[in-house]
Each structure stands twice: as C-alpha cells, then as structure tokens.
Amino acid sequence: MYRHEALLVENIAQHINRKLIPKLPSYTENLVGIASKVEEVNKFIGMGLNDVRFIGIWGMGGIGKTSIARAVYEAIQCKFQVPCFLENVGEASETKGGLVQVQRQLLSHLSISRNDFHNLYDGKKTIQNSLCRKKVLLVLDNVNDVNQLENLAGKQDWFGPGSRVIITTKDKHLLLNHGVDNIYEVGLLSQNEALHLFCLKAFKGDKPQEGYLDLSKEVVDYTGGLPLALEVLGSYLYGRNVDLWHSAVKNIRSAPPREIQDKLKISYESLGTMERAIFLDIACFFKGMKRDKVIDILENCGYSPQIIIQDLIDRSLITLDWVNNKLGMHDLLQEMGRNIVFQESPDEPGRRSRLWFKEDIDHVLTKNKVVTNISTIIG
Q1: Which end of the chain is more exposed for a tag (fewer CB within 10 A), N or C?
Q2: pTM attached to this predicted model
Q3: Alpha-carbon Rg of the chain, whole angstroms?
Q4: Of the candidates 139, 131, 124, the residue with the CA atom closest to the CA atom of residue 56
Q5: Cβ neighbours of residue 150 under 8 Å, at least 6 residues apart?
Q6: How many helices (H) and strands (E) does the chain have?
Q7: Any idea what DSSP says for residue 328?
C-alpha cells in the first residue's frame, strides 16, 4: 500500500514538475543537445515537492556539465527564495582566501551580510543558520574535493524545505561520498548533434558550406562528440579556405590544440603518483583490453590496481564496458596521455617511460640508443 502511495506521489510531483518548469532560456538555443539533458536533470529536481535534494551532474572535462547546470538554474531560479550559482568552486578554493572566501562569496550572493568569519567552522554555522528556513537553489559548479561540499552544503538540514543543491563534478565518488540523492551522467553528443555544433562554430550556420562536408565529418569524428573540442576546433577553422582546413586537420592529429589538452589535463594533474602511472599505462597500452587481463599485468608489475582503476572510472578518465568487461578511454584523453609521455623526451624515445610505436621501439633497439627511463615497451 505504502509503495503505491509513494509512486502516486512521485507521479503527481512529476506532473507538477512539468507544469512548473518554464521553457529553457533563450541563450541555450545554440547549445546543441542541451534540451534533452536538461530534461533528464529536471526529472531529479522534483519541483513541487517539499523535501531537500542534492543532485549531481557528472562527466569528463569539456562535456558540458556547467552549461547543463546553468540552463537548469536559469529555468527554475524564479521558483526559489534565494538562488545562487557558484562557478568553478574547486578553482576558487585554491585562490587567496581559500574555501573561507568561497563561503563568504556564497553568502554575499545571497545578500547575507553576516560574513565576517575567519574559519571554516564559523562559515559553516553561518551558512546553516542563514539558510535553514529558506527555499534555496544552489549550484556548486566544478567541485573537485569533498571538503568543499562539507563546508558549503554539508547536510540537507542546512536548507529550508523545497531546496535544491546541484553539484557538477568530474568525480563520481565525491558525489557518492556526500550522499547525493541522484547523479546524472552526461553523455557525449551524437554524430548529428556534434556536426550541428561544429557547423555553428565553423560556419555560423546549421550545416557545412559547399566543399567542406568531408573535412567537417573528419574533424567531428576526431572530437568523439566532446563539445569543448567541437567548439575550439570550429572556432579555429572559421573563415579559413579549404587548403588551410586540409593543413589544419593534418596538424590537429599530430599536435592537438593546447586549449583542449590543457582542459583535459586538469583531471590528470589531480591524480596521485600511482594513479598517474596506471592512467598512462592504459592510455599507451591497455585501452580496449579486458579489465581482468589489465589487472593481472599490473599486479605482476607490483601495483594493487583494482581500486585505482575504479578511481579512474569515477574521475571520468577511463570507462568500463560492463557487457564485455573492457576498459575504454575517450580518444582525446588517450591522446593527451600519450602526449604526456612523448613530452618526457620529444627527440629521444629512449628517455621516455613508455614505448608503443614500432618505429620508436626499433629506433631504441637497433640504433643502440641510450635507454635511461623506459619502464614498459609493448609493440
């Protein structure tokens, strides 16, 4: 009986939810593929219900988490007493003033003047006491440490009835550790969506100009449906002639744009020593291999890899095909990892930690070149 009542309440709430949530704001018109993702997040919002909910938006760097959160926020903020969107929480926590300054920023956004505290404990108490009777919509964007959540949105009882806290992050375990109610995993764009977004940037239109279709498809395939890469490359190629496109496409594959690499590298740089090593091993050698086989190999190398592999999955750096039990990785992340190894010694393969290209292996083994840093060779 209780189960049926709960289902009925949820169905009613979803109906109210559809009635209460307005159309997407106009600025989202050029955000390709955003509408369906916002609709999925809105299912977790539960407008009309009086509980307090924490909702996570999770995915790899550059996939559009912030855009989705912003679109949801803009659409429903008018339904709350105190709305606040805090951008780049992780980055802001590392600047002068640290997390205490972010706490002050949160209260300042909410026009709450009681922000003269100087430590995290007092900040937590001030946030809780200021918001516990208010209906709050809070977006914590790009969170990278559970400590940030504990000091900005510690528990549901910090907020008044009907409040919603939306958290975007590249780390799923962070959300699980904080007891987030629902987690939405952001997927890559489909082929058609990716081509559409690319054309908006490269041609300022919905489709490729005459003579550019095949080149456009080649670039779209290269990006693997990652919005960041599509936008960067589309903007880079805008207004250039076909000859320059051919040259650019060739260069992109050998030297990816720094703006894309730097964005993806943020996740790698947050890893510990062992996590970095195993990520690079997967990027260089093990992508597409069965998980159990990879674990066996790494255990024989002295690692305890199971928890590290799960951590890399949670951080959106690798994927696991549950049907075939194979490890995967977005092509641009693999490219980033291999480029990290290449940059260890661009001119001398024997000084790199890993070799996987036959030409580099032959160069080292047949030319009697000095070998000082190689830990793994697979050819």
Answers
A1: N
A2: 0.87
A3: 24
A4: 139
A5: 124, 178
A6: 18, 9
A7: E
pLDDT mean over 15-32:
59
Q: Which residue has the tokens 């946030």?
A: 127
Alpha carbons 65 and 60: distance in angstroms, whole number: 9
Per-residue b/e over 297-314, b at no fewer than 16 CB within 10 Å?
A: bbeeeebebeebbebbbb
**Both structure tokens of 293:** 């086989």
Amino acid making up residue 161: P
The better pLDDT of the pair 286, 257 is held by 286
Cα 64 from Cα 157, distance rounded (Å): 30
- Nearest CA-CA partner of 157 in 183, 179, 184: 179
* SS3 state at 182: strand
Cβ atoms within 10 A of the Cβ of 262, count?
A: 12
The span from the CA of 207 to the CA of 217, in Å, is 11
Per the document, the length of the chain is 379
Res 259 pLDDT > 80:
yes
Is the per-residue pLDDT at 177 higher than 70? yes
Q: CA-CA distance, 63 to 86, in Å (whole number)?
A: 19
**Phi/psi at 367 (nearest 5 deg)?**
-95, 5
Does pLDDT of 1 surpass 50?
Answer: no
